[in-house]
């Protein structure tokens, strides 16, 4: 883990140097992200201009949910964009180059494409969560805040894990970009309460693409909208899926090595 952090730090410094050289691009990307996520929040505000509650959720409560969605997605953006290149490495054979190096191929992939746009999602997410939490008629304490932080991190791990599983499909199917795009589109449904959707979407968000565990269940638990079981299960489930994704990645990598031989 320490080696990963040091390596990531080195790559991050390189990216910072690039930002200094191309400040305009960084500012433009940051503004683009803030505008994109702000539009989503404005859409929520338009809905609540007509309704006081949406399936039992107030505007500040959905704001808290939306802010956590942005925060967890920022974690993926910081570490997971290299997953998009797995297909390229498999199809072109450049995975062989990664395998010859003394560092794990996954670590190399993670550090190869550090997306500074995640800063925008992080800043926006934290800001919206703080504003929303302040406007909710709810008593916060250290344990609840700590739970929110922990589940935000584990939620980010689950998003990373989901995309890693989808990206690893390239080892079997040679192509995975389309699957990742589907996962990306479905992730947008997690911006809103699970309770507003029909049974089909609910099943997808709890099982096939379990994004409900990244923000909905933790927030709903804190607000007393779901049983305690879901609040306890959420971070544990996210960690389990993360471990499973690493296992699937290793299985795929072994298959690639076998094909190469």
UniProtKB/TrEMBL annotation:
The lineage of its organism: Bacteria, Bacillati, Bacillota, Bacillota incertae sedis, Caldicellulosiruptorales. This is ABC transporter permease. Pfam families: ABC2_membrane_6. The keyword Transmembrane applies. Keywords: Membrane, Transmembrane, Transmembrane helix. InterPro entries: ABC-2_transporter-like (IPR010390). The keyword Repeat does not apply. The chain crosses the membrane at residues 26-48, 60-79, 114-134, 146-174, 194-213, 228-249. Signal peptide: none annotated.
């Amino acid at each position: 883990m320490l080696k990963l952090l040091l390596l990531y730090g080195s790559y991050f410094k390189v990216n910072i140097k690039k930002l200094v050289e191309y400040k305009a691009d960084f500012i433009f990307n940051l503004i683009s992200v803030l505008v994109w996520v702000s539009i989503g929040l404005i859409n929520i505000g338009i809905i609540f201009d007509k309704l006081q509650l949406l399936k039992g959720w107030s505007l500040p409560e959905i704001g808290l949910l939306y802010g956590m969605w942005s925060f967890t997605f920022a974690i993926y953006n910081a570490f997971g964009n290299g997953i998009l290149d797995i297909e390229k490495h498999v199809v072109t054979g450049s995975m062989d180059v990664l395998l010859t190096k003394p560092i794990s191929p996954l670590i190399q992939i993670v550090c190869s494409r550090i997306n500074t746009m995640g800063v925008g999602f992080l800043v926006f997410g934290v800001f919206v969560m703080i504003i929303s939490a302040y406007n909710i008629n709810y008593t916060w304490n250290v344990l609840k805040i700590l739970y929110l932080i922990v589940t935000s991190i584990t939620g980010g791990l689950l998003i990373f894990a989901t995309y890693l599983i989808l990206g690893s499909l390239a080892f079997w199917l040679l192509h995975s970009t389309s699957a990742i795009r589907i996962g990306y589109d479905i992730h947008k449904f997690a911006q809103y309460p699970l309770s507003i959707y029909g049974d089909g979407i609910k099943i997808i968000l709890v099982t096939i693409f379990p994004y409900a565990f990244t923000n909905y269940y933790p927030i709903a638990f804190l607000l007393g909208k779901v049983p305690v079981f879901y609040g306890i299960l959420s971070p544990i489930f996210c960690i389990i899926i993360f471990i499973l994704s690493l296992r699937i990645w290793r299985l795929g990598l072994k298959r690639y090595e076998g094909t190469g031989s």
